[in-house]
# Entry
Amino acid sequence: MSKRIYLSPPHIGSNEKALISDALDSNWIAPLGPHVDSFEEEMSDYLRVGHACALSSGTAALHLSLVISDVCRGDIVLCPSLTFAASANAILYQGATPVFIDVDPNTWTLNIDLLQKAIKIFSPKALIAVDIYGQPLDYDTVIDICNKNNVIVIEDAAESLGSEYKDSKCGAFGQMGVLSFNGNKIITTSGGGMLVSDDKEKIKKARFLSTQAREKTLHYEHIDLGYNYRMSNVLAAIGRAQLEKIDSRVKSRRDIFQKYYNALSEIDGIEFLKDGQFCKSNRWLSTFTIDSSKINTTVIEIIHALEEENIESRPVWKPMHLQPLYNSCEYISTKDDISKTLFETGICLPSGSSLKNSEQEKIIDIIISNLSLK
Ligand SMILES: *Cc1c(COP(=O)(O)O)cnc(C)c1O
# Structure
């Protein structure tokens, strides 16, 4: 059996080992230290955002963003249905109520008309704005609507580090931005995340809450409920080496997308997720949908065919309103349930920045040989 091709494996560069060694040699083996400080500064510079707090995961960053926004029991938080569960789980951690919104069929991001409808009906406290598969939202419009209605915008940029909307990087939109450095993301610290914001007080609060909310006394004094969410100095060392390479990682993923696109987009019944207007996606994962009226194959069949060759691929995210955990929640959609259709017809292809040309050609060949046109 040939070596397994993963969907989005870690891509380690040349400087990770040296920086980890530095962390070990300096004995900063703690959820704080000079690499944590530097990683935060370098990420703030990269995103052109004022402040950043490195954390143990993107999920922790999402949770803290809601704590800092004073989201609590009785509050409603909007979230696109088409996302990874972590986006919504943070709402439940706070005992708040998620309301799910369907997405636009062209961009796969939040449907703006439905957002406006949901704001009118539910008077939500906050919105988790998810840049799905690296695709930014139309932030000018979304932020304008949310500002007018006093809805706090938290950008879940876990999948969109390196993406751009107009002249700004993803992560920089809304009151706070959430990044993930999980092993499958565009850059990784094995596990890790970051909360970023232009509001210094919010990031100061995140640092305080993520290190057990200890008051400034000699003994351990606690007024607030704290968490153990800070990033380790060893992992921040990996993150710094990874961030050095971000531009080339984004370029690789965009090239991989382009190659899939060139090979398959002419086929009637295959529709790729395209860059939205003013958007430049990092192409975290290359995705397309299959129109079953034109093609006699299902996503599941293609996934199985790839799996037989030891190649990992996945369906598009199963929407939250179809998850047993969330299926009793409110869901705002048109009569066409777009996120459900995307789940049923969409596939995510191997897109790691270390994917070899020959590997990608093999993937394309397998897909083509499994398509039977109607
Ligand atoms: C990966 C991901 C997260 C969670 O990040 P972790 O670092 O794995 O906790 C949150 N939201 C989305 C959209 C993600 O893809």
The mean pLDDT is 97. The first helix runs from residue 16 to 26.
